[in-house]
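User: quick one - fold this with arginine bound?
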Amino acid sequence: MPKKQWGGRFQKEHDRLALLYSQSISFDWRLYPYDIAGSIAHARMLAECGIIKKTEANKIAKALREIGKKIADGAFTFEVDLEDIHTNIEAALMKKVGADIGGKLHTGRSRNDQVALDMRMYIRDEALTIVQLLHEFQKALIRLAEEDSEVIMPGFTHMQHAQPVLFAHHMLAYYEMLCRDEDRFIECFHSANVMPLGSAALAGTSFPIDRKMLAKELGFDSISQNSMDAVSDRDYLIEFLSACSILMMHISRLSEELVVWSTPEFGFVELDDSFTTGSSIMPQKKNPDIAELARGKTARVYGNLMTLLGLMKGLPLAYNSDMQEDKPCVFDSIDIVKSTLRVFARMMGSVTVYSDRMEEMCRTGFLNATDLADYLVKKGMPFRQAHEVVGKLVTHCLDQVLALEDVPLEKLRQFSPLFDDDVCDALRLDNIVNSRRLTGGTARSSVLHQIRRAKKDLGI
Ligand code: ARG
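Assistant: Sure. Structure tokens for the protein plus arginine:
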């Protein structure tokens, strides 16, 4: 069994089950590039401050780089007995350069500030990767909106037919949500971008180290201002999981729409064969699994956020081992978010939009009722009264199984003398859509403006 770094005061071997229970190497190995970069910077800084020799720092840095390459090549064997990524790498370093030199690396440092550093560097990278993937997903939505920019569909409130909207307008609503998600992930980058090394176990270190040099070397904007806070702060991870949860919530709403829209009852869209699955018993089935799974995985990401909030709420300062449990929920959420964004960018690019069906459904549910009331208002009737008149007309149409546009003018006049020939135009769906020309409206001109703005922002 390899020797434990902390083994000095112990007279007995670590219990096997206790060791397996406490190890984190099975999941924290993915922090290795950051652990290595952090250790190289730490060694250089120790040399610069005269705490170790320059030759020693060079040997340490060279060995660490080799270890990093070996891990990247899949040729490194992680040892569970060595608990975590930090100790695994340090043990490998000792083997390479000898304990006399390798043993100096941990001067003025603790695993507590080391893990805080690694996680902050990891989150910075992942936040930026997620922003890139968000852009790809947004591009797919914009392309879909552009391809079908003329298609009118029923807009819903309470899942009831409400008013006609452009399908493109509906897709662009998701684009907006994703813009806010992007802002949140950029915020997460900044929250993580504070350098904790030098906090050591909890109290700071008495070695004359240069924290600013470390920050500069590792690309951090600032250094932490309180060592106890720095080793036990997981706020930035909670913020990150909140951003993941909100993003997944958006994707889950879209998923729900895709599931519903691809039923025969709706028939608004069809998902490509390559993003659906069949049934083992019902030969006719084509199931929207990806959308369903995204909806399901959203629950997992929410759960991860709750885990972390629950994990932190009772912890006294400073570091506690409970905090090791932050990693599985963060890693799991990152994997879900990245894979969901990747698959959705592709899936949305292959959606078939059934415009005829959408337009057919626009003819039911009195989507033009609001505009009929607005018509009367423009002729001088107070809105509340106009609402009442059109409400009565709707009841009449329901009795007669008619659409509003099918009611002859003479009949309309029985409900209000203000109705005139121009009412036909007021009832036409394309006019209704295109009259909403204000910023944020569903008119074609406004939607084209939204698309132009989005394309400019995305550089396409
Ligand atoms: N594997 C640990 C974690 O993930 C690293 C810090 C361990 N520190 C300690 N004092 N046991 O949090």
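One thing worth noting: The radius of gyration is 30 Å.
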